[in-house]
């Protein structure tokens, strides 16, 4: 769906009061959770993509993290009783906000969306039909990147591959890319795995840690269709930090402690060591030599492959000292 169409839908949200007595007379089937902070300029398109869903039996819970712009006023002006907002003091903890949103809802199924992204109109309908047909507990699908104006741009994570079944090893090695905003799961499964981990050490990687536990507990159902359009822009949360490999290594550390399968733990440990070396390379590139030494030492201690260690050292050194 083009950004122009979404913008038109956004404006219509503020003007109409839909006839929803039949929709609201039953318990909502799908609880949709959107955490947000100062996204008044983008969240209108996000909400419009939810209202445009071909499946209409949903409730949208927006958890505002103490926004200081007009986000709250904009959401409150929407004339749709299925949309509600929870105001929360600013904490910057996306996992906590998502958990609050889930607990505030009543749907049997749960779906997540970020306040700068959008869904394709058939997203909920396609997933519910597939989940009910195959009797699975969770589902995910494809995604594409767009820029600030809604124009499609090349993906940064390679080609999407729809892996179904017990996909945990592929999630660990990044062969399977599971976008949180494409996930739909049973509330009972969300409760079983304990929701999102709000530990500060997982900031901006809490979604990956969540998917790892999800894949450990239940078989996945993957759809081939693109379900989500992810907006890549300067204010995107993942674009605001530079220590990605360190954060990803933290995820493997957390997950290692929660896993009891020895073969999986070995795989996680290899990935942990690999990302420690990547963190060392990045710090060497930035001339943070003490942190680089620290992470190289940890990578060696945890058994990263010598070839990868050497490659990380060369890349980190050459990037900052070109010949």
Brief sketch in words of this structure:
By secondary structure, the chain is of the alpha/beta class.
Name its key features.
323 residues; alpha/beta; Spore Coat Polysaccharide Biosynthesis Protein SpsA, Chain A; nine-stranded mixed beta sheet; 13 helices; 16% strand; globular; disordered N terminus
How are the secondary structure elements laid out?
Blueprint: H1 3-13, H2 21-24, E1 30-36, H3 43-51, E2 58-65, H4 71-76, E3 83-88, H5 94-104, E4 109-112, E5 118-119, H6 123-134, E6 138-146, E7 152-153, H7 168-172, E8 184-186, H8 187-193, H9 206-217, E9 220-231, H10 244-258, H11 262-285, H12 289-301, H13 306-320
Parallel strand pairs: 1-2, 1-4, 2-3, 6-9
Antiparallel strand pairs: 4-8, 5-9, 6-7, 6-8
Helix pairs in contact: 1-3, 9-10, 10-11, 11-12, 11-13
Characterise this structure.
- This protein has 323 residues and is of the alpha/beta class.
- The chain folds into two domains: 3-239, Spore Coat Polysaccharide Biosynthesis Protein SpsA, Chain A (Alpha-Beta Complex); 244-320, no CATH class.
- It is 45% helix and 16% strand.
- It has 13 helices and nine strands.
- It has helices at residues 3-13, 21-24, 43-51, 71-76, 94-104, 123-134, 168-172, 187-193, 206-217, 244-258, 262-285, 289-301, 306-320; strands spanning 30-36, 58-65, 83-88, 109-112, 118-119, 138-146, 152-153, 184-186, 220-231.
- Strands 1, 2, 3, 4, 5, 6, 7, 8 and 9 form a nine-stranded mixed sheet that branches.
- Strand 6 (138-146) and strand 7 (152-153) form a beta hairpin.
- Helix 1 crosses helix 3 (43-51).
- The longest helix has 24 residues, at 262-285.
- The radius of gyration is 21 Å and the shape is globular.
